[in-house]
Amino acid sequence: MTTPSEKKKPRAGGPGSRRVEDEAGLWSFRVYGEADADTALVLLPAMGVPSHYYAPLLRAWANDGMAVILADFTASQVRPGAATPGQDGYAALVERCFPAILGELRDGFPLASPVVVGHSLGGQLGLIAAGHYAPDMAFVLAASGSTGHYYFRGVRRWAAVPILQAIQLTTRVAGYWPGDRLGFGGRQPAALIRDWCHTVRTDRFQAATGSFDYEAALRAYRGDVLAISVERDSFAPKAATEALLAKIPNARVTRRAYTASQGTAKPGAHFTWVKDQPGLSRVIADWARSR
């Protein structure tokens, strides 16, 4: 099993004062904020979305005096045939990245009330990790839902299976998923695509190299959740969000709908909500501090 490594910079509380990176290159996170911050937001991104895309949220929360831990799941060192020792796929993010973030919260922001903000895949895996490691931690689901293909409508629903088969074949031939060139999901290790495809097919979360039951971890989660559905989100429609919420029956859920100002303009409402200001950055900050 690989362990996190740090690229150390002066810990002055300024942007990027600490960067923690997985030695296999499967994840990293940056830490922003002062040690005496009263609220710490942990932002877990969508699959293949680089951390710099979330800069508008980071700036808004930092200007509001909040500490922020911004994760990156873009797997920067993935290459054809690359082998990652120990846990990979979902397990690398759930069982290595999230515990490292919890350690940073404990040591770096001892006075802060932590809230996880999970976008898309970050919401799914973040809830699993929270259910296992910190079942009372507050959580914001933003444009996130189950990836089971039967929660989609129309052509997208019926096209899901052949598209999934094409993704699996491409990954098998290339030795990784070249999403950075194909326009979906970013460059990803084969193991993560394996786990993701299993969820799309079965609507069940499972990691081939995981050490615990991911569905049971969801059921164990009992914290407060703000579930935000984005109108005209083709990747996380409302039915998919409700399906994910059904997997956390012990959570206390507040639902909210939001319309992205750019609507379905590329790359789609599933992503463009991040650019709205104040938009959801204010909604999330207010909810985090009101608890």
CA radius of gyration is: 18 Å
Number of strands: 11
What is the count of structural domains? 1
CATH homologous superfamily grouping: Alpha/Beta hydrolase fold, catalytic domain
Structural class: alpha/beta
Give the second-level CATH assignment, the architecture.
3-Layer(aba) Sandwich
The SSE order reads: EEEEHEHEHEHEHEHHEHEHH
Characterize the overall form: globular
Distance from first to last alpha carbon:
37 Å
Instruction: Note poorly predicted spans.
Output: 1-16
Please name the CATH topology: Rossmann fold
Count of alpha/pi helices:
10
Main sheet: strand order: 1-2-3-5-4-6-7-10-11
Structural account:
38% of the residues lie in helices and 21% in strands. With 291 residues, it is α/β, with parallel strands linked by helices. The chain has a single domain, classed as 3-Layer(aba) Sandwich (Rossmann fold), CATH 3.40.50.1820. It has a nine-stranded mixed beta sheet with strand order 1-2-3-5-4-6-7-10-11, sandwiched between helices. It has a two-stranded antiparallel ribbon with strand order 8-9. The longest helix has 21 residues, at 154-174. The chain starts with a strand and ends with a helix.
